[in-house]
């Protein structure tokens, strides 16, 4: 079970690829903190009652999850429940306490560093504060040090997601080389899609740089990529008769207003017909996830075959491949980590 959790929709950046209208328009909402803990506990408990061995919690937020006041106790609660927690953020706002909690409890920390030099970082991320590429690197170092301090080099994945973007020309290979030497586990390069829905024109040389970065791979370090030249394919091919997608069964998407959706790409007010229900009080989860309305919506709509999810996010495709077994074991088997 993979819980895509967005406890808040505030951000201190205005990244050029962000599609999130509430963030862009300044509408701010947060999932009530005690209620959020109740929901993730219900999902974990219910999943295990059905024989699910591993429940993965992705604390990504529609924006920067560190702004959510309940993020620290949420990390601790997830660990108490035996969940695999992924924390996805630009790294802005990370403090020593949160870094230590992630080093101690998280399964994966994924930093979005979409601009790989000072100029492209500001151009792509458009931070509303004084955060910079240098500060992102310092937080990355602190996370790596926390992993070592807690003796979790073989348990905690620390990676970077970035963009195939013309502004990164000349920086892709040296940046990948730098993070490999820092003992980061992976870097992923995604095809950027603008808010208009149109891709940015990428000079061929930028793709060549991504190809070159792949030569840096070792038994410990991986370079993941997704582009027109290196295409990722769906992890689960839709069943011909029903168009089945595993997301509707194994990936509840939780929104700041309590909305529970079956999909990572159709989970906002403009896709209300996908809504399973809203979590308003403890005990609501089973009613939402198993009621007849949810079963009806699980039948894949016509838009599913055109889903862009797998093509633009190589990391998502990789995660999908390890959902059905222990993610940590499968990852370290994949990269043949030396003992």
UniProtKB/TrEMBL annotation:
Stretches assigned to the 4Fe4S-binding SPASM domain: 245-307
InterPro entries, sorted: 4Fe4S-binding_SPASM_dom, Aldolase_TIM, Radical_SAM_PqqE_MftC-like, rSAM, rSAM_sf
Keyword Metal-binding: yes
A GO MF label: catalytic activity
Keywords, alphabetical: Iron, Iron-sulfur, Metal-binding, S-adenosyl-L-methionine
Gene3D superfamilies named among the record's database cross-references: Aldolase class I
Pfam families: SPASM
Entry protein name: 4Fe4S-binding SPASM domain-containing protein
Organism: candidate division WOR-1 bacterium RIFCSPHIGHO2_01_FULL_53_15
């Amino acid at each position: 079970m993979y819980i895509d959790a967005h406890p808040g929709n505030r951000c201190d950046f205005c990244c050029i690829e962000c599609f999130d209208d509430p963030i862009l328009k300044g509408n701010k909402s947060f999932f009530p903190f005690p209620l959020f803990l109740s929901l993730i506990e219900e999902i974990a408990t219910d999943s295990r009652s059905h024989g699910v061995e591993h429940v993965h919690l992705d604390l990504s937020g529609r924006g920067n999850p560190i702004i959510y006041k309940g993020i620290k106790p949420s990390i601790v609660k997830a660990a108490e429940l035996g969940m695999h927690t992924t924390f996805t953020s630009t790294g802005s706002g990370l403090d020593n306490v949160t870094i230590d909690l992630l080093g101690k409890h998280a399964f994966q920390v994924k930093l979005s560093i979409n601009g790989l030099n000072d100029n492209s970082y500001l151009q792509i991320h458009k931070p509303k504060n004084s955060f910079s590429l240098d500060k992102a690197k310092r937080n990355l170092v602190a996370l790596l040090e926390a992993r070592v301090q807690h003796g979790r080099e073989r348990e905690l994945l620390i990676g970077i997601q970035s963009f195939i973007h013309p502004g990164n020309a000349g920086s892709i290979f040296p940046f990948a080389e730098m993070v490999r030497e820092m003992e980061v586990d992976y870097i992923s390069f995604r095809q950027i899609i603008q808010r208009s829905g149109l891709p940015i024109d990428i000079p061929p040389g930028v793709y060549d740089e991504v190809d070159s970065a792949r030569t840096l791979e070792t038994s410990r370090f991986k370079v993941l990529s997704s582009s027109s030249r290196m295409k990722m394919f769906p992890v689960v091919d839709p069943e011909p008769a029903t168009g089945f997608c595993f997301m509707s069964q194994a990936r509840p998407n939780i929104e700041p207003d309590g909305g529970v959706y079956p999909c990572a790409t159709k989970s906002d007010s403009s896709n209300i017909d996908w809504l399973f229900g809203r979590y308003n009080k403890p005990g609501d989860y089973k009613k939402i996830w198993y009621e007849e309305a949810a079963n009806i919506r699980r039948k894949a709509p016509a838009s599913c075959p055109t889903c862009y999810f797998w093509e633009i996010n190589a990391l998502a495709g990789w995660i999908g491949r390890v959902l059905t077994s222990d993610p940590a074991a499968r990852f370290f088997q994949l990269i043949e980590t030396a003992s």
